[in-house]
Amino acid sequence: MKSIHLLMTAVGLLITSVTIAQIQSVSIQASGLTCSMCSRAIYKALLKVPAVSDVKEDIEHASYHVQFSDPSKVSPDKLQKAVTGAGFSVAWMEVKANFNNTEVASDSSLKINDLIFNFVDIRKQTLNGERELLIVDKDYLLEKDRKKYPGSYQTKPVAGDRGNTFHVTLIQS
Amino acid sequence: MKNFFKFLFFQAILVMSSCTVNAQELFVFTEPASNMPAKSIGIRASNWLMYDKSSSTVNYQLIPEVMWGVNKNLMLHLDGFFTNQNGNFHAVGAGTYAKYRIYSADAVNRHFRMAAYGRLSLNNSAIFQQEIDLTRNNTGYAFGLIATQLLHKQAISAAISFNQAYNNGPENKFPPGQADQAINFSMSTGRLLLPKHYLNYKQTNLNLMVELMGQHLLGTNESFIDMAPAVQFIFNSQTRLDIGYKFQLYSNMQRVAPNGFMIRIEHLLFNVL
After folding, report:
1. CB–CB of A85 and B205 under 8 A?
2. pTM above 0.90, yes or no
């Protein structure tokens, strides 16, 4: 019993010790629209999401660059719901974070603030500086693009509300 | 040679359809399968100026409307019906409309959507025609289906509905012997013409649309088909001005004023709820 406690403490320490990355911004491309009225509906909905300080839009490509007043309160879940609430879907969502000697590999987890990122389809590597994490979960990436990341299908689905856990992969830079 | 002319003919049809079959999906005379944004309110005023053949006058009808995006799938409308019939401007009724999105397949710059809708209208004006019109002349209900395909700057939509008319209050009974049920159908298409490239939300959008709307009275062989081209301006990505002209292409039923203009102004209030 004691050993289980010890193990849990060790795991707890391990998770807290990997909080060594900082979220910078989130980029989103929406799908299902072309007109600027539709684009503005998404823009306005994103601005209403808590902790969002600024949204830069590219109407032509239906994409949005979202910045935050408090990066510790970033919620991809709320951003995704803002886009669907406006009547559209998310084509892709990327979380830009700053890393400092962070070791990652497929099936490894990374906790940034309250968010847990599970990596899929990447090689073992050490991240430094700014990198973009592409969320590969259903409703966060077009189905045809999800197929490029078989790892996203092997992972256990999250019951009910996705909450704070996401499966991500790295965009090769 | 004959084949060459055939080829030319089909090319010409293709070019014509890509020019005239225009506009996006914020149709002027019909509704698309897409909904307005959730938690938003839209207000619109539709002004109908229809030429009355029998009295050689212009009938003016005003339909103020409030629209509410309840959630991403459901939207509700409430509308009032006003007219200058009989020389004085007065209210003749009110209606409610609900639309529910049942299918959605989105891709970048395109989508295919389907929606089911219903309408309930109360109207106390006198009934002078066979056409059943639940937005301007008749008490009754309707329900139907809409399918809309958006392909970048072009949209195409089709709708079909069942319409049931009743007495227009105790004083204006539905004419006995006249068909009180109808099937309505429509085909709409539109194209975004301007701007060529989006830079910001302040650019004025110009859409061109052409719609075909028809009705068949059940239990009879009576029908009509109208055509309605329209031009639409969207200012500040928030306010719409529609100017459309509707005219009869074919009819073998009695109608009072099938031809005329519709001018509408609409303003969208994003995320106010």
Report:
1. no
2. no
